[in-house]
Amino acid sequence: MPTKEVQSLLDHGVQIDAPDCVTVDADIDPGRIAPTARLLPGTRLQGSSTSVGPDCVLGEEGPVTLDHCQLGAGVKLKGGFFSRSVFMDGVTFASCAHVRPGCLLEEGASCGHSVGLKQTVLLPFVTLGSLINFCDCLMAGGTGPRNHSEVGSSFIHFNFSAHQDKATPSLFGDIPQGVMLEQPPIFLGGQGGIVGPSLIAYGTITAAGTVYRRDVSEPGQLVFGQFTRSAGKSSYNPAVYGDIRRIVRNNLLYIANIIALNQWYLHVRAPKAQGLPHAAACLDGATQALQRILNERMARMTQLNEKLCLSLDIAGRKFGSKLPDQPYSGQAAFVEQWKDCAEKILAFDPDTCAAGDRDHFLAEWSSIKGHNVIESIRSLSHEARESGSRWLQTIVERSASLGPHLG
Question: For the residues 119-123, what does the mean pLDDT come to?
């Protein structure tokens, strides 16, 4: 006999194939589970903010635990654990997923089996293969389901450094251009990896088996090889940092893109969610996920600041009061400036940026009827897309400029 919580969903019209094999916690609101959703055996719903849109299917390949997640329409989560994350219309996951808090997957994004994500943002149609760990990343690129950015199977984004810090988020593409769905896709070959924090331009291809430790700033590049030093060993103290300028720059750009994406949700996606309960739930969940990502990235930079204090202390004991200019001047500048910079970044008001471009873009956006975000983007004129990208790029540049200046 089903529990009263499961019975409430059945009474609401939700399709539950084996009611005795589905668990629904008491804090689930039946009104947030669409009647055309289907729950297969082994599904567990928990969390008062959980919302499941029309025609979603949970548990086709194995048990699914859904914890404080928001799903759009037609989402298929075939097996795994999903926590405090958002899945827009048409997102699919194969079995054995492990999705931790702060993930945001936009329309048509898909993942194979055994994929691990945390604080990961995938823009529309981005596809991940199987056996992948892709945490602390933002990926864009591509124009549709047949021309999308892709990550090959057995790929790893290395997001924990030998210094034991996680100031390691990587940008694959960006927000100002990526949201317009007209950039070349990025392809990351299987059995490879990227060592964060990295910036990877549109049109980049990394060959299978490549582990890359740098940035790709020029579009349309093929990257291949291992990019490691010659084999050998040397003394190494993980508490001592080298030149941090690239680390800081890439982190600031990542933070700035998250701020820009949040503005995209508040000004652009919000009107399209009106009147659709599941879309409104996804919108709320997305803004919370982006705030969670911003908080995490700022906390990781503060942690970096603490570790740089130790690095400078070790250097001071070795060199005395006259530290070598490189790499320690940059470390000292970061330590001196970070607290004030962090306050400025958190207080930054994006509404002061490129109001003319924003208003021009939003004027045309508001004239496009319907709830479908993807079709609305495709309906935009070239001039509106350019205005929208300039608006978002100004947000990125101004917010990133608030970070420490290291020379």
Answer: 98
DSSP count for the chain of H helices, then E strands = 9, 30
CA separation for the pair 144, 109 (Å, rounded): 10
Give the CA distances from residue 396 to residues 201, 391, 402, in Å, rounded to whole numbers and listed in that order: 16, 9, 10
Reference 289, options 118, 128, 158, 144; nearest CA is 118
Q: Tokens 């005795």 map to which residue?
A: 20
Cα–Cα distance for residue pair 152/279, rounded to 1 Å: 30
Cα gap 203→222, rounded to integer Å: 9
Q: Report the distance separating Cα 99 and Cα 174, nearest Å.
A: 22
Q: Measure the CA–CA gap between 108 and 374, rounded to whole angstroms.
A: 10
pLDDT of amino acid 139: 98
Q: Is the peptide bond before 197 cis (omega within 30 degrees of 0)?
A: yes
Type of residue at 354: A
Would you state the structure tokens that stand for residue 229, as one six-digit string?
A: 């030093």
Kindly write down the DSSP assignment for every residue of 327-377, as one continuous string.
HHHHHHHHHHHHHHHHHHHHH--GGGS-HHHHHHHHHHHHHS-SS-HHHHH
Residue pLDDT, tens place only, 348-384: 999 999 999 999 999 999 999 999 999 999 999 999 9
Helix (H) or strand (E) holding 298: helix 277-319
pLDDT of residue 317: 87
Q: Under 8 Å CB-to-CB from 209, ≥6 apart: which residues? A: 189, 190, 191, 192, 226
User: Which residue has tokens 């002061």?
Assistant: 352
pLDDT at 335: 97
Count the neighbouring beta carbons within 10 Å of the beta carbon of residue 182: 17
* H or E stretch at 397: helix 382-400
The one-character DSSP state at 185 is: P
Q: Report yes or no on whether pTM surpasses 0.90.
A: yes
Q: What is the mean pLDDT of residues 48-69?
A: 98
Q: Name residue 198's amino acid.
A: S
